[in-house]
Amino acid sequence: MIKKLRIFLALGLVVVGSLVMVPLQLLSMKTGLWSETVVLKIWHRMILKALGMRVHVKGKLSRERPLLIAANHISWTDIMVLGSFVDVKFIARADMEGWPLIGMLSKLQRTVFIERDRKRTSGDQASEIARRMAKGDAMVLFAEGSTGDGNLVLPFKSTLFGAASMAISEGAAEQVFIQPVAIAYTRLHGVPMGRRHRPIAAWIGDQDLMPHLKGLLAEGSLDAEVHFGDPVPFSKGSNRKETARLMEAKVREMMQATLADPAPSR
After folding, report:
1. What is the C-alpha separation between 106 and 124, in angstroms, rounded?
2. What CA dihedral angle connects 92, 95, 6 and 83, to 10 degrees?
3. What is the dihedral of CA 103, 104, 108, 111, to 10 degrees?
4. Which of 5, 57, 151, 201 could form a disulfide with 185 if both were Cys (CB 3.0 to 4.6 A apart)?
5. What pTM did the predictor assign?
6. pLDDT digits over 34-92, tens only?
């Protein structure tokens, strides 16, 4: 009964809040009266509040530009976790564009949707990401190309770093900075999660969104940690595969350190 009540109240908060936030964000995008990320941060924080999720941050977003953020990926909530406190734009897989709420949120923060399995469109998409970085947008790339279970970092796909190469080859920048970022879900009701419980936060593969959302709303009280590493310059002579391996190693190191010693819940 308590879990059902929690789900009802949380969904009510998201719906009512969204009815207010959507018009404000559309107004911001059309008029430029205020930064587009102002409303988005409030919106992301509201969704995290509904989920009962607390965010802990170590390090900070680099001020270097153009900037590509290479992060691991555990769940759709990663977008809310990052978007709640930093000014970033996201790179997401194409099918997310049609999802309820998440798709709308993505469009309202000018997400770049990519079709990873269609080579004919990959060049245009990489070019769009390159242009956005050149304009000063910090773009978040979930470099595994899929979601993990919260225990391990999957191999980073070097092809997804093509936007960095294209930004340089098209003359948009002499170099691009790539910053490793580790995301981890560490505590449930204040208690550190072990390997068996971390998948509670994970949204894996083709799992349906609504059952996962209901499960998170019913569970409540999760802690997420975000760790920022030092940015690495990527220039004309840089090797894309070596860069992908380096970012993967740095993210894995930060994530493992986080899981071994999670921040206190508050």
Report:
1. 19
2. 20
3. 10
4. 201
5. 0.90
6. 888 888 899 899 989 988 899 999 999 999 999 999 999 999 899 999 999 999 999 88
